[in-house]
Amino acid sequence: MNATPTPDRHVPVLIVGGGGSGLTASLALSDLGVDTLLIERHPTTSVQPKAHILNARTMEIFDHLGVAEDIHREGSPAENRAAMVWLSSLGGDAPYDRQVLHRTSAYGGGELAERYALASAQPHANLGQRWLEPLLRRHAEKRAPGGLLFHHELTALDEDPDGVTATVLDRGSGQTFTVRAAYVVAADGGKTIGRLRSIPMEGTPTFLEWINLHVRADFSAFIPCDDAVVNRVSSLSEDGTLQHCGVVPMGPDRWGRHSEEWTLMFSRPPGAADLDDDTIVAMVRRTLKLPDDHPMDVESISRWPVEGTVARRFRSGRVFLVGDAAHRHPPSGALGLNTGVQDSHNLAWKLALVLGGSADDALLDTYESERRPVARRVVERALFSLFNQIAFTAGTGVVQGAHPDWNRAQMTALFSDTPDGETRRAVLREYFDTNRITTAHLGLEMGYDYADAGSVTSDGTPRPPQDPLGLEYEQTARPGSRLPHAWLTEDGTRTGTHRLHRAPGSFLLLAGAEGTAWVEAARLLSRRYGVRI
């Protein structure tokens, strides 16, 4: 049937993709006074819990966008997002079953809270995308009424010197229409635009299949710690091998060990996605050693290929890649969604200045020069974090391929109440401590800078020492770095430096008592170029 085109739409920016990155772009551009149209091929926001940890830098951005308080309100309380815990199983009756292998503070919680609080006024948050995305969508629709179209798919994209013409399919009605835009933000996870623009992904191609189960269950009798934002089970199977499964509380009303909903996640070599659902559920139950009669309702099962890749280009003419369209990696370290949100934030203000006539199009080139190195570092860290977890197996004494009796003896000795058991547990802690690169990487989250991106002017000061592990973060006002956090007090009211910079589309000048010359220079620039300072 030939579709009857509807009238064309004209917008400065077309956003393709309605996940976390696309919705952030919509919010940010709306706040900057830029009209947008967002299209998303699915009928709704994500039905899967997906990513859930939102780091402090991301929450600073969400605070600027006026959604941070809602996220904290809907997300888990601080006491339920403070640690990562490794367990030997949930059930089972062997001497090594239902043991805590390791417990550590994680993602700015627990013992890390004080160090993280020195770096940011915003604590990290914990809210799965199944709940985060509808929250962002509600705010975006209020700011751009009629500007978000779900169940609409991009089918073609043509660029000329003056703009971009997109062909959009309404998947509900079957009709197509065209959208004319000055620029396109590709937040589609690489589903369409990267292919249409022939932008290759570079790095490590698919090497694992990740399988997530979204379940409803009461695991409170099996999980000992109420503050774990992530539980990781490494259980010794009947054949003597260690099998691994993440057990992640997802709330949404009760949290911690009393959560009603969970994500269970494990990986397999490529091709495992061919496993049918019943086989997957049986595998997970065996790994967790759940009693046969314990109820667990499976809401959905998703499978996705794991890779470690970065797009060769983040800009192709008038098209910009953000989020998974630009970089893809394992979930280790909770870096994916956070990096995508930060991509959109970086791009939005530049688009607004160019569209408003206050900056040349060349400013948009700095999006790639600033964000692509960050993406490469994030991908490298996520890959290394995943591979580093293999070391934990060696710490237990279990040897893959050894006789099952040997491995059972190693696990039994590990938890024995003997000097040998105490020594083994001390050695195991040394192995697990290397996981700090996954759960305590404040330097990685906050410490990136754009000094080498060609977008800032150096002040001649040296770069602060860089921690190769990405754990330590030294705040600096050096050009290209994140604005340092500090508390300022006026008339008894305390305000963080990042709260000073909330006016959309403006720049912030911080000057001391002797900064009159700086203030006058800023006023001159503001008048000359029409930029708010």
From TrEMBL:
The cross-references to InterPro entries, in alphabetical order and at most eight, read:
FAD-bd, FAD/NAD-bd_sf, RIFMO-like
Q: Which cofactor does it need?
A: FAD
Alphabetical keyword list: FAD, Flavoprotein
Top-level taxonomic group: Bacteria
Fetch the Gene3D superfamilies from UniProt.
3.40.30.120, D-Amino Acid Oxidase, subunit A, domain 2 (3.30.9.10), FAD/NAD(P)-binding domain (3.50.50.60)
The FAD-binding domain covers 11-382
Q: Does the keyword Flavoprotein apply?
A: yes
GO MF assignments:
FAD binding; oxidoreductase activity, acting on paired donors, with incorporation or reduction of molecular oxygen, NAD(P)H as one donor, and incorporation of one atom of oxygen
What is the name listed in the Swiss-Prot or TrEMBL entry for this protein? Aromatic ring hydroxylase
UniProt source species: Streptomyces parvus
